[in-house]
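Much of what follows relies on a compact textual record of a protein's fold. With that in mind, consider the following protein and its fold in token form.
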Amino acid sequence: MKLFRRAAALVCLGLIVLFAAVWLRAGWYGVGVILRRGGSYWLPVSTDSRWISPAMRLALNGAPDATPGAVDWRMIAPGFEVADLPVLVAGHQVDDIYLARIDPAHFRFMALNDPTGSRNLDQWMTKLGAALVVNGSYYAHNGTPDTPFLSNGVLLGPADYTATAGAFVTSPSFTGIRNLSNRNWQTAFQGAENAMVSYPLLVANGADGVGHPSRWLANRSFVGNDASGRVIIGTTADAFFSLERLGDFLLKAPLGLTIALNLDGGPVACQGISLNGYERRSYGQWELQVHGNRASLLTKLYGTWAMPVVLAVFPK
């Protein structure tokens, strides 16, 4: 019994030390992550591993060229349309992009942060009663925004930050992407009520804005504008795309994008819609780092992935 009690005491002490270390590094967000999904880790896999999706294995096998399928927009409310964009390789669908096209004259946008790590997509949807929720820009170890972030007039994230890609901005006079190659984020945020800096620009000035190749695959989300000023939000079902190939694909897609900004990717790349009886959910699952013949898959032990930073859409 003494041995058992000593072992139990050591286990308890180990747990206390573990939670203290997590708290010091990541605050309540880190504790929430441990409790809800056991943390995450990078699992070594091969580039043809059965642990990754067929779309990812295909993408890693010579990065085949993808072509966009047809897009059939469906209006579910005035100023709010939904569609799917098939991703085709040799005539076969390998991925899908879930789309929403939104007129800012009818809908308002909010950038929100929950640094406790307590909300996944479904919990955000229930809490907000929003028409759409999609993951936002990047976040730090403690669940707070890792880039400048304006939420209902309150500035979050780092105040000292150099941004050269883009920002999603919503104000009484403008809702959409500001290109930060020729202005600073402070100027872009002026007059805004909600805004977030992210990177990279996937489409800018009629070209792919990424500029360098990568084999990093993940679920992806983006937000952009078309020539009519409508906001287009997209989230991939699978992880076929690296960033530069997603930029190339969006240039070819029949979306009329004039500019598009990447949001955070990986398992956090989720999108939900609930409007006028229409329901859709897309849950991220994949993130794969690739270096030569070595690959690492982001993996959790259990539970669902938290979404500390979101962009939410509401009817006006």
